[in-house]
Amino acid sequence: MQEQxxxxxxxxxxxxxxxxxxxxxxxxxxxxxxxxxxxxVFLLDHDVGLIRTIDPRAVEPxxxxxxxxxxxxxxxxGFALRSKGDAAGSCWFLEDxxxxxxxxxxYGCRIYPFMLRRKPDALGNVDWRYIADGGEHGEYHHPIPxxxxxELARDIKMYENAVLTQEISFLEVVENHxxxxxxxxxxxxxxxxxxxxxxxxxxTVMAYYEGTLEKHHVRGGYDH
Length: 224
Description:
Elements (H helix, E strand, L loop, with lengths): L1 H8 L2 H11 L19 E2 L1 H10 L4 E3 L5 E2 L5 E3 L2 E3 L12 E2 L2 E2 L7 H5 L2 E7 L5 E6 L14 H35 L21 E8 L2 E8 L5
Parallel strand pairs: 4-10
Antiparallel strand pairs: 1-5, 2-5, 3-4, 6-7, 8-9, 10-11
Helix pairs in contact: 1-5, 2-5
């Protein structure tokens, strides 16, 4: 909630100015749709529902679970787009460097590479970050109309607020679940269940979706 308050207080014009100064333009290289550049695409609940109507196989519990109970079950705040499993870690929908569902792509893809969230740097100092993986793909310093910058800034703040709202709801649901079922939070071996077990080891993941926890039985390497 404190992060939401900081987000609400961030000046829209300042973010629009950063967007205009950056002048990012997609070069259609497809690099941002691979794990060579991005770890995974986190999906909002709306994205999950839409993509499941297109191809249910494209959605999987997101990596980096927030909790693990004493029985080894993981709890994660949402879903992510599945990778094809190739060497580059290409998105499920990436075909010849193009998105097969471009007009229905997730919200996070629509605003990428822009962001507005507080994250620690290499020294652990927490500050605002505005551009994801700057300089690794795309083209920069192209002119963008001011109104377009403002519209994108509004979309970015809307998206980041939706992510935080989903996270808060997830925490409330997990708290109630642990209390009702008398579950204790266990020791997290790491933040990535797929790297704790071999690929053929079954892992139970409770993934948050629309106010509930969905149970999924996946293999240890589901995030690869």
